[in-house]
Amino acid sequence: MLGVLLFTSLACAHKQVSTMVAPAPEASRVLVVVNANSKVSEELGRFYMRTRVIPTQNLLEVKTGTEDDITFDDYKSKILDPIEGDSASDQRQGPL
């Protein structure tokens, strides 16, 4: 099973997350996907990784638009394909 968290550029979402969150039970199996074109996405993703003690090699940066909508072709080429390619390379501490 592939655990994927896709952080979008929700400007105030990171302000509502508690800092008293326990590490994820199997943090090494979580892939955190952030949009490199969005500072908020990167900040939120890195905050989540620190809070849940997710290994840094489990971060995948994709480059996609910052608008609310995305075409299926862009989703597939800019988000899904990089996730599937990263998962196949198996650079993390155990399977996702």
Task: Describe the structure concisely.
The protein contains two helices and three strands, in the order ββαβα. With 96 residues, the chain is an alpha/beta fold.
Describe this structure in words.
The protein contains two helices and three strands. The protein has 96 residues and is α/β, with parallel strands linked by helices. The radius of gyration is 13 Å and the shape is globular. A three-stranded parallel beta sheet has the order 1-2-3, with helices on both faces. The chain has one domain.
Fold blueprint:
Layout: E1 3-7, E2 30-35, H1 39-52, E3 59-62, H2 72-89
Parallel strand pairs: 1-2, 2-3
Considering the chains and any ligands shown, give keywords for the structure.
single chain; 96 residues; three-stranded parallel β-sheet; 33% helix
User: What is the average per-residue confidence, as pLDDT, rounded to a whole number?
Assistant: 78
Portion in strands: 15-25%
Number of separate helices: 2
Number of distinct beta strands: 3
Portion of residues within helices? 25-40%
How many separate structural domains? 1
**Any low-confidence stretches, pLDDT <50, length ≥5?**
1-5, 7-18
Shape annotation: globular
Radius of gyration: 13 Å
Strand order of the largest sheet: 1-2-3
Look at the helices and sheets and give the structural class. alpha/beta
**Helix-strand string:** EEHEH
User: How widely separated are the two ends?
Assistant: 6 Å
The main pleated sheet reads as: 3 strands, parallel
